[in-house]
Design a protein that fits this description.
Layout: E1 3-4, H1 34-42, H2 49-62, H3 69-81, H4 86-97, E2 109-111, E3 114-116, H5 118-130, H6 139-151, H7 155-165, H8 180-192, H9 196-208, E4 218-219, H10 221-224, H11 254-268, H12 271-283, H13 292-309
Antiparallel strand pairs: 1-4, 2-3
Helix pairs in contact: 2-3, 3-4, 4-5, 5-6, 6-7, 7-8, 8-9, 9-11, 11-12, 12-13
InterPro entries: HcpB-like, Sel1-like, TPR-like_helical_dom_sf
Keywords: Repeat
Protein name: HCP-like protein
Length: about 300
């Protein structure tokens, strides 16, 4: 059995030989959503009278960005999803992410001396990343807004901020920091809130170590421990770590990874986490002894999760 090692960043090439040759991620244009918008425009928009009244009430309560944060956020979501007025939605998300400290709206969180509605910051940052609706792509500002949303308590913002921190240095632009240790802290915080994907992602980092390339999607326990050579299988890129990369490798910590995988398997019925625990107990690892009973237990949990959720 193999560990599932899923990297939560992508690159446009194999492991770069030099920093100069490492490509940037392509910048989105915002037109990626045009086809979806055209399709939605052709579909009938059916909103019953009660729902329409709720929408109208939210618009009134928002009062052109001067009203309650939650009303403006709900209005922005409606504008983007149903009316496809993305720029208007963007303006309201921005308004709701950045309010004066004196703003009295409920659910506003103080950040840097101002008030933020965390879900609005999350949506604003996503639009800045993707250019949806013709919004100018600005990854540095997107990173800063994800950071703001994260500090306001939005787990999704923390998770994506962590993914950005793990992107190869310079791949998202020179202004985006590369900091795997801060990413680990963010994943741990969101994991503690019950997010199984963050638990799994952090566990993956702690299992990979310095023998396996960070873009490899799987490895055997013996490979990650250096007990056997990292094999390059048919139709697969070289999975061995590349000394020419200037990435920082996280020291292996299987015991901590075990606890994270247990949390993800237990709270989220997360099949990959249950599977990796089965592998860990079947093979044993540093600080984690072999345990055939636990291996069988987590094999069954994996099967249950796959059956329930439809796959790994």
């Amino acid at each position: 059995m193999r560990f599932i090692l899923v990297c939560h960043f992508n690159s446009n090439s194999n492991s770069a030989e030099t920093e100069v040759e490492r490509p940037m991620f392509p910048s989105p244009t915002g037109h990626e959503y045009d086809a979806i918008d055209r399709l939605q425009a052709e579909l009938p928009t059916i909103i019953d009278d009660e729902t329409q009244q709720q929408v109208d009430d939210y618009r009134d309560a928002c009062n052109d960005g001067k009203g309650a944060m939650v009303a403006c956020f709900a209005t922005a979501e409606f504008l983007s999803m149903f009316e496809r007025k993305h720029q208007e939605a963007f303006d309201l998300f921005e308004n709701t992410c950045f309010r004066p400290y004196k703003d009295k709206s409920s659910n506003g969180i103080e950040v840097d001396g101002t008030k933020a509605y965390p879900p609005a910051c999350f949506n604003l940052a996503k639009m800045l990343m993707t250019g949806k609706g013709g919004v100018t792509v600005d990854r540095k500002r997107a990173y800063d807004v994800f950071d703001r949303g994260c500090r306001a308590g939005h787990g999704g913002a923390c998770h994506i901020q962590a993914k950005m921190l793990l992107s190869p240095p310079g791949a998202l632009g020179k202004d985006i920091p590369y900091d795997p240790f801060k990413a680990m802290d963010l994943y741990q915080d969101v994991c503690d809130l019950g997010d199984s994907v963050s638990c799994f992602t952090l566990a993956t980092m702690l299992l990979r170590g310095d023998k396996i390339n960070k873009q490899a999607r799987n490895a055997t326990p013996a490979e990650v421990r250096g007990e056997e050579p990292v094999m390059q299988r048919t139709n697969e890129d070289d999975r061995s770590a590349n000394a020419a990369e200037d990435f920082e490798y996280i020291p292996r910590d299987p015991k901590r990874a075990e606890a994270l995988l247990q949390s993800a398997c237990r709270t989220g019925a997360h099949a990959p986490s249950c599977f990796n625990l089965a592998v860990m107990y079947e093979n044993g690892d540093d600080g984690v002894p072999k345990d055939s009973e636990k291996a069988e237990e987590y094999k069954k949990k994996t099967e249950q999760a796959v059956h329930t959720l439809g796959g790994l």
